[in-house]
Amino acid sequence: MIYLDNAATTLIKPVSVAQAMLNAMRSCASPGRGGHRAAMRASELVYRCREQAAELFNVPDPARVVFTMNATHGLNIAIRSLAKAGTPVLISGYEHNAVTRPLHQLGADLLIAQSPLFDREACLRAFEGRIDRAELAVCTMVSNVFGFILPVYEIAALCAERGVPLIVDASQAAGVLDVDFQKLGAAFIAMPGHKGLLGPQGTGLLLCGERGEPLLAGGSGSDSLLQEMPAYLPDRLEAGTHNVPGIAGLLAGIEYIRSREPGSILEHERSLLRIAVSELRDCGGLELFDGSEGTQSGVLSFRFGGMDCDEAAQQLSERGICLRSGLHCAPLAHRSAGTIDTGTLRMSFSPFVSARELSGCCKIIKEMLI
Length: 370
Hints:
This protein is an alpha/beta fold. 39% of the residues lie in helices and 15% in strands.
């Protein structure tokens, strides 16, 4: 099997991730729910993960690192904290349904900063042209469909200048690109644990520049006499028992990333991208969606001229190639790129994909074109 669906979930993890999860299941109870050894071990582990995440993302206070189930959970907290019915919200033309569906459900007034694929300058101009009408902005750092790296730092500066709070979706950036909480100055930054951070499914982080409004209410292990959620972070946004084995695995994933040279994961994934583009660019009957150097991360979408994307994905699966087809939960991105009627096939990389595996995949794709 050649696994190239890492934008959905990184399947191959550092060995330490599974080991950490198993150790936590055997030795950790519930954090904040007792002073005995098993509870204290859990509390120490959870805090250590907060601390490591705060250092990785330049968050000044680990209490501003909130654990979530996934990026969607974090985005819902962030969006529902800052938007309501009728709020004019400016978004990019590449947002995931994890952003657009909560906004639609709330009845927010969506303003779309539409721009061509891989055109960072046009994207920034589109935000500049509509920012004065917005009370909130939401922007992904990287398109999950095309790997397009949006100019989020420039958009963040624009939002700060105009006094518009910004929510950043770092789902495809965390663990690969530089995500600097203080430099971005965002109200919230949401990310999953199971993609670039190499942790398990069922984990995520919400970096909080603002206090936020609880999405869930319940036990927090603190201020138990209160019938409202605590006023302080992280307890305010973390109702119920933590996913301690998941957090242990996430901690191991973050530690692996921090052990690598800065930028080495991105460079590895871009080297794979260059290989894929080089091997497939001149293949008749295949359309690649690739950008210029610096505008794309380790994600490549493509489509066959004469074959349905789902059918092509099934044929590849039968030959041991795992990638994704369809709209990838991001119809807005497909409308922006002109692929809404067909969708695309998407290959996406990780630190554990080799050049040899990728070349094997490209060889099979070329054989399908004959």
